[in-house]
Amino acid sequence: MKILLIGEYSNVHWTLAEGLRSLGHEVCVVSNGDFWKNYKRDISLTRTTYSKAEGIMFLLKTLATLPKLRNYDVVQLINPMFLELKAERIKPIYRFLKKHNKKIFLCAFGMDAYWVEAGTRKPHIFRYSDFNIGDKPIINDYTREQASDWTDTPKAELNRYIAHDCSGIIAGMYEYYRAYIDEHTDKLTYIPFPIEADKHVAAKLYTNERKLRFFIGIQRTRSIYKGTDIMLRALERIEKDFPNDCEILKAENVPFEEYSRMVNDCDVLLDQLYGYSPGMNALLAASKGKIVVGGAEEECYNILNEEKLRPMVNVIPNEDDVYNKLKWLIENKEIVAKLQQESVEFVDKHHSPRKVAKQYLDFWNSRK
């Protein structure tokens, strides 16, 4: 099969491409590398500024690339805004891709109109999300910006147009599946993100002979949205209360390769305070035998039909809850290595790139 993956989100498409290639398929990844993360791609479409002149140059570069993006069996879009262009510019490009390829699929992997609507509708369908905690809305610059961007706008119209027009929709986390299911039951599926597990992690497990190392990655523009600000405050309290038992490792807006190296040096990673499920960064850490503290509600295990493994430490969006869960790890260091080993088992069981690639192939082949 000849497959075109457009756009990138935390290395999902490149990792999926490697799984597909291992099964003998021809794959091309077109992306901007997910901005500063600079992930691998086969065709690079990057935009350095958002000036009008740069926008015109980027559009021309994209249009010049389009002849290379024809005659694929499957085209998959990382998001309805799969290019760094206005929605009005993207729509005719989508139509070109639809016309010149056999099937086209949309990913529900992150911020879009359906996710915003699910988080802001009342009554709320989530106990908490980026946009609400219970019945109380979360109001900050980021949530206001996203709600404004994706509600009754060209971006929202494009999202709904593609969702209704495409061959199928793939959600990568429980919460995104839940956001789409009411409107697109007939064409929606859930497939886990692809991550390669480290099968040789046993020698790297925590041995209680040193301080427990907690790692937190900070994206300055998304700290409030991701809950990193709350997690960091809890971490700093832990470090103050248990200075002889733990240390904090921080990464701020670093490229993927450097980020990955820093994860290697930690024991516990904090990520996605408002999530129900682990995202790609959390799964990357789990694949390396790190304990994830973050979103890991029962819903994320249930959608995987996982009844036994519970390696992640679930937290709710509350500083004291995060603090207490970190304190629990410090006071129960004897279970750290066990949870680390189970983290690898969990990723290998559910997120193996080859296994995930087969699930994608089955879904693509099942759709007209």
Number of helices: 15
The helical percent reads: 40-55%
Query: What about the largest sheet?
Result: 7 strands, parallel
CATH architecture of the largest domain: 3-Layer(aba) Sandwich
Classify the secondary structure makeup into a structural class: alpha/beta
Overall structural domain count = 2
In short:
The protein is α/β, with parallel strands linked by helices and 368 residues long. It contains 15 helices and 14 strands. The protein has helices at 12-22, 52-65, 87-100, 113-120, 141-150, 154-165, 174-181, 223-226, 228-241, 256-264, 280-287, 298-302, 319-331, 336-351, 353-366; strands spanning 2-6, 26-31, 43-44, 74-77, 103-108, 132-133, 136-137, 168-171, 188-190, 212-218, 246-252, 268-271, 291-294, 313-314.
Describe the model.
By secondary structure, the protein is of the alpha/beta class. Helices cover 43% and strands 16% of the residues. The chain has helices spanning 12-22, 52-65, 87-100, 113-120, 141-150, 154-165, 174-181, 223-226, 228-241, 256-264, 280-287, 298-302, 319-331, 336-351, 353-366, and strands at residues 2-6, 26-31, 43-44, 74-77, 103-108, 132-133, 136-137, 168-171, 188-190, 212-218, 246-252, 268-271, 291-294, 313-314. The strands form three sheets. Strands 3-2-1-4-5-8-9 form a seven-stranded parallel beta sheet. Helix 12 (298-302) links the parallel strand 13 and strand 14.
